[in-house]
Write a structure and sequence with these properties.
By secondary structure, chain A is α/β, with parallel strands linked by helices. Chain A has 2 domains: 254 residues, Aldehyde Dehydrogenase, Chain A, domain 1, CATH 3.40.605; 178 residues, Aldehyde Dehydrogenase, Chain A, domain 2 (3-Layer(aba) Sandwich), CATH 3.40.309.10. The first copy, chain A, is built from 15 helices and 15 strands. Chain A has a 7-stranded mixed sheet, sandwiched between helices. A 5-stranded parallel sheet of chain A has the order 5-4-3-6-7, with helices on both faces. A 3-stranded antiparallel sheet of chain A has the order 1-2-15, with no helix packed on it. In chain A, strand 6, helix 8 and strand 7 form a beta-alpha-beta unit. Chain A is globular, with a radius of gyration of 24 Å. The termini of chain A are far apart. The mean pLDDT of chain A is 95. At the A-B interface, helix 4, strand 1, strand 2, helix 14 and strand 14 of A face helix 4, strand 1, strand 2, helix 14 and strand 14 of B.
Chain lengths: 470, 470
């Protein structure tokens, strides 16, 4: 396996300096030009599919079906951001005309524009070698916003990272995209500390993300750090939905838990059911479907070790019953399912920790009130899924309120894995699922992380005509 | 002088708990109801003007003309937020219809709404006893967004704070607005640490704000901390503007520097001029106009001591020439003006520190390039003012770019003091002027600090109809 050599401090400085030098030109480039280059990146990725997908599979074991789909998604979002900026989304303008007279009613003309923040440090994820790596969503949104980018390649897919980076630098103006490499902590720390860096985007573990977030805050001049960290994504399966459709939902949920060997930030880690017949049948069906799933190898040895430790911890907790503990088969882990009750779940924070991989905790609750307590204990998560909350009842309103309070996305059908790239998407929830719950790392609102509002007061006509592109 | 008794830990906890209990009801209240109550707060403030303004003057020395104007502004913004939320601004909705087919093009229906973050801790400012205190902009924007508020009253105007709080609690539903008191650090720290608090807004010094920001980040579950800290607000006076209009601009600028005894976050602390005749005449006129100004007493002894130390430091720096050092008259300080060159300014960070009060540093530059260097050295500021940059020239484009890079508001006429409350306003700039440059504490976008996006996936009709008010 190819491993990265850590970029030296001088190399990191040089990459950040190059991104800084290129920043004004890229920020000033007309949006039609930026859009054309984003589309050219997508075309270039797509043309290189035959070479890139096998390379990605060799390095990540995610399988060519998934990786082809992920490459499609990566191209789709590059083109989507191009469409968005051509439609004016990177240049929001609010123009308040002057009002004669004394304040507070009287006022000068104020024109609110947005300016790119400057060079962005981007930390690639292990589990999305295309969609959250060198040319993934964070890079696409930063480039679209008019920011240059310094990517820290993920050590899990070094050859793919280099290939995509090479392809990208052939398309983009000099300096706009930079890449540093490093398997250890020092490279990431040096990148976040570099004075030229004005914001950082990260997808990964709570531990790694929080450490870098602290570095960003400890700078002489702190910068925004957008970390997408861990999440347990509760699914609330109400009796009505299970009675009507339990078997199909069990199959769908097992697919979501096992998908990509459970290595998704939106993988459902907790399922809340009632103590009734339909729920018991559903749990049995879920265990059967999970037992039939065929997980592939995990991304790397550290993730595998983390999963093994996580499920071992789960099986050993007080009040926890093991429903499924499949043995590992060569490089692939087996799926795990445990069950507990609300009181145990509320009492034991270990049961609320993310286990990254194909495992899930069933929590049986007695009533609607216990469901709310369980959700409240989760605190922060990317998603909550509510099956069977379609009617406008007081209980369902309470449930929706509780879900909205802890999540950035609330689903009323389907499973949380698979995050659509749209303008309305919100992939970011309360701490610890992200470091800034008011922002998203998927969907077109992701650009807003890299655009800073500026009010122009009594601006000359030429400047307003240039709409902040000056 | 009345002093506050620090609220006890139990009192702080009780205030936060009450705000937490009231939060769901206030978040769910229809916007017409929230708007009506914001207007009722404005009416109530206005009715109490005869009692409140003298009380404010006694405690702050800001004068009844200014304080009457500030009360008007406070009422204006309460009503403005009411208008904004009735127009739908607190409930932005982006509705992306489902698209049939496989991802990435195929997608479920996604509806992006915004939910109030929960109870907000609000730290009142000393220098705006109405507009950034108990019912000021931060409180108004949080209430408008659907959040309950716990105000930490400023010890500089305790009686006014209590009177306004009493008036507000007679209008608002129980628990929606809470107040704690404390002159020392522990009350603020306890408030930011309270588990019920979900966000904090602060207006004050860099030192105090950064300390509380660190507390917000050190929580087990960190919260957003919106701090509006210090700013030196450079004014770039280009030769053309001074040749055409120097005397009038000198008078206007002196008024801005001396206004409120210089105790504004937007007070101009640095003026950049060229080494030519018009600029020399302007500086002379500015000194004369400042000498004729009649500052009133400062807000408190600590601010006064800080000002004395600040100007003493300025006069003593290498490369600095004293132009004006008026003696104090009883309780009021004298105005101060010093001059330096670009090289000294760039070399000495003391010259770039805010001196809160009626003082200003003139920096003479040789050319456009030195102007850019001086602006770049300022790093983060609420405003930059550009006089004489009306033509569309390469130099002016560079200048505007440099100003936008360091400021949240760029003025092309007038002076930076006096911040209009509009939708386009941006009162927030790069660190250290604020802790989050992507947000504003003045103007209607201030609400966005307290609204968290949530994407509803395949939401039932009743929920979309309720637009996040469920």
């Amino acid at each position: 396996m190819t491993t990265l050599t850590d970029s030296s401090p001088n190399q990191i400085r040089a990459a950040c300096e190059a991104a800084s030098q290129a920043a004004p030109g890229w920020a000033a480039a007309p949006v039609v030009q930026r859009a054309a280059l984003l589309r050219a990146l997508a075309d270039s990725l797509q043309s290189a599919r035959e070479a890139l997908v096998p390379l990605a599979d060799e390095e990540t074991h995610l399988g060519t079906v998934r990786l082809n789909g992920e490459l499609d998604r990566t191209c789709f979002q590059l083109r989507g951001f191009a469409d968005q900026i051509e439609a004016g989304r990177a240049q929001p303008v609010q123009d308040d005309p002057a009002v004669p007279g004394a304040p507070p009613a009287g006022r000068p003309r104020l024109t609110r524009i947005a300016v790119p923040v400057g060079p962005v440090a981007m930390f690639a994820a292990s589990n999305f070698p295309f969609a959250f790596s060198v040319l993934g969503g964070d890079t696409a949104s930063a480039l679209a916003a008019g920011c240059t980018v310094v990517v820290k390649a993920h050590p899990g897919h070094p050859l793919l990272s280099r290939a995509v980076f090479e392809l990208a630098t052939a398309v983009l103006p000099a300096g706009v995209l930079q890449m540093v490499e490093g398997a250890g902590i020092p490279v990431g720390v040096a990148l976040v500390r570099d004075p030229a860096i004005t914001a950082a985007a990260f997808t990964g573990s709570v531990r790694g993300g929080v450490a870098l977030w602290r570095e960003a805050n400890a700078r002489p001049r702190p910068i925004p750090f957008y970390g997408e960290l861990g999440s347990i994504n509760p699914v609330v399966a109400l009796p009505g939905a299970l009675a009507a459709n339990g078997a199909a939902l069990a199959t769908q949920l097992a697919g979501s838990i096992a998908m990509g060997c459970g290595q998704f930030c939106t993988s459902p880690g907790v399922v809340i059911v009632r103590d009734d017949e339909a729920s018991q049948a559903f749990v049995k069906q879920l265990a059967e479907a999970l037992a039939a799933a065929n997980p592939h190898a995990m991304l790397n040895a550290a993730i595998r070790a983390g999963f093994n430790a996580g499920v071992a911890r789960l099986h050993g907790r007080a009040g926890v019953k093991s429903l499924l503990a499949l043995p590992a088969r060569e490089t692939a882990p087996g799926a795990h399912l445990v069950a507990t009750d609300a009181a145990s779940f509320l009492a034991d924070e270990v049961l609320r920790e993310e286990v990254f991989g194909p495992s899930c905790v069933i929590v049986t609750v007695r009533d609607a009130a216990e469901t709310l307590q369980v959700l409240h204990a989760v605190e922060g998560t990317l998603t909550v899924t509510l099956w069977g909350a379609d009617e406008d009842t007081a209980d369902n309103r309470e449930l929706v309120r509780a879900a909205q309070a802890i999540a950035g996305r609330v689903l009323f059908a389907g499973v949380p894995t698979g995050v659509a790239v749209t303008a309305a998407q919100q992939h970011g929830g309360p701490w610890p699922s992200t470091t800034n719950a008011l922002t998203t790392s998927v969907g077109y609102a992701a650009m807003e992380r890299f655009l800073r509002p500026v009010a122009l007061q009594d601006a000359p006509g030429w400047l307003i005509a240039a709409r902040g592109q000056a």
